[in-house]
Design a protein that fits this description.
The protein is mainly alpha-helical. The protein has 17 helices and five strands. It has three domains: about 90 residues, Nucleotidyltransferase, domain 5; about 210 residues, no CATH class; about 25 residues.
């Protein structure tokens, strides 16, 4: 790879960009350490940033984007005043979703995910009991997964998928634990009540639909072949898909909502073989909450990705892409005509 880089540098014209990713190495988290590492690598690879550097991307930490002493600011001052600063788009998406879900009911789902993960991770006995119960119910039980992580969206999505897959076994096991003597019985009963409430079930499957779309967007943003010119169009497509869910439920929510609304007179519906009472929420209240969270998510995305509509350089990449697409269509039309 180093030889390939040297060959590229020899070609004229040659321009480069820098990418900073998060690190757990404390020696590289300070500004001076990062700048020193950049200088060292540039020297090793015979790169003169004053002639070559066009753009730099990093997460939104102040160590990178500080207005006076941030790493990117220092690079502009020392090497390339024209350098374009790009806040990592995958990181932007993570931040906007944390903003959108803050102080909503979904944080209670997050809290239960964390508590269930800790419950079965710390107790081999409880985990063994849950697996044995799953076998008795003829279900394959997955170990609860950690909902927090570097990739917030995908960690949360996987944790929700596991929770839904284990729902029946978890419900039965928590209720059994609540009926047995022990110091955890009150805690387990509280978990069971929350897990088997209609409000929790409806919001859990809605959460799955929302994160399924957002996880796809996040994966697109992490792809090596992604170009800046396609970011805005991909964001708009994802927002459109999310806004559609205000009126048309997604694949996880749709069957559950149908069961919930069709059994309103009975006051009970079934989810994963568990009887769920209607009393904790109403159809109208849930519909309002669904519209509100979709609006919050799409608004936060618009705010975090506003530069792709307002920054003249980033906008020009979109225009260039549209021009290339139009040229390609024209060439295709001409060849078909001939």
């Amino acid at each position: 790879m180093k030889d390939q880089l040297h060959d590229l540098v020899k070609k004229k014209p040659f321009y480069c960009s820098l990418l900073f990713d998060g690190s757990t190495d404390k020696t590289t988290t300070e500004k001076e350490g990062i700048l020193k590492a950049v200088a060292q690598k540039c020297e090793e690879n015979q790169l003169n940033l004053s002639n070559l550097l066009t753009a730099t991307a990093a997460d939104g930490a102040s160590v990178h984007f500080g207005k006076t002493t941030g790493v990117l600011t220092r690079l502009q001052q020392q090497s390339a005043p024209w350098m374009i600063e790009v806040h990592c788009i995958a990181h932007r998406l993570e931040l906007c979703l944390k903003d959108a879900f803050k102080e909503t009911y979904f944080t209670q789902i997050d809290d239960l995910l964390t508590r269930l993960y800790s419950l079965y991770r710390r107790s081999a006995k409880k985990w063994r009991q849950l697996k044995d119960l799953g076998e008795a119910l003829e279900e394959h039980v997955l170990k609860p997964t950690r909902a927090q992580g570097t990739r917030w969206i995908n960690h949360r999505r996987k944790a929700l998928v596991t929770l839904a897959a284990n729902y029946r076994s978890l419900s039965v096991h928590l209720l059994q634990g609540a009926d047995e003597p022990g110091q955890d019985k009150v805690k387990l009963k509280a978990y069971w009540r929350q897990l088997t409430s209609s409000k929790f079930v409806l919001h859990m499957v809605l959460y799955q639909d929302l994160l399924a779309e957002l996880a796809e967007l996040s994966l697109d943003f992490q792809a090596d072949e992604l170009s800046l010119s396609s970011v805005r169009s991909r964001v708009v497509a994802s927002q459109t898909a999310l806004l559609r869910q205000r009126e048309k439920p997604g694949p996880y929510l749709c069957p559950v909502l149908n069961a919930f609304t069709s059994t309103s007179s009975a006051g009970v519906f079934e989810f994963k073989g568990v009887a769920i009472s209607h009393h904790s929420t109403s159809d109208e209240a849930f519909r309002h909450q669904r519209v509100e969270i979709v609006n919050r998510i799409t608004d936060c995305i618009s705010q975090r990705f506003a530069t792709f509509s307002t920054d003249p350089v980033l906008r020009s990449t979109q225009y260039a892409r549209e021009h290339q697409c139009n040229r390609a269509l024209q060439r295709r039309g001409s060849s078909e005509t001939v």
